[in-house]
# Entry
Amino acid sequence: MPPTWTDQTAPSLDDFARLARGAFDALPEPFRSLAGEVVIRVDDFADDETLTMMEMEDPFELTGLYHGVDIGLRDSLGPAAEPSRIFLYRRPILDEWCERGDVGLSEIIAHVLIHEIGHHFGLDDDRIDEVEGADDA
# Structure
């Protein structure tokens, strides 16, 4: 019997946080250890200041963001001034999930999380795209 969808609700911020934690916990070593101090935060959308900084008008354009000093640039003599953070934006991720319709929500959340962890490791978008392309081959 197909689902009726009448008893379904959109995944909450807490649901997203659980899916993100599961994706993080599934990372192989040593990636999980290297990314271990990163704080993962889930919000509905990026705030106006972030959107302005990213030169974006549409909050649905941004599914995730890394904020911090990547591990390649840190001073080896001490910790970063503030913890590195990865933001996952629930509503844009849900929008992408609905538009795509060909992958599970947990896969998209894991993809965005891993992309942002790539920034934590010092990779830019072009390099992350290259690595992702190599994984698809």
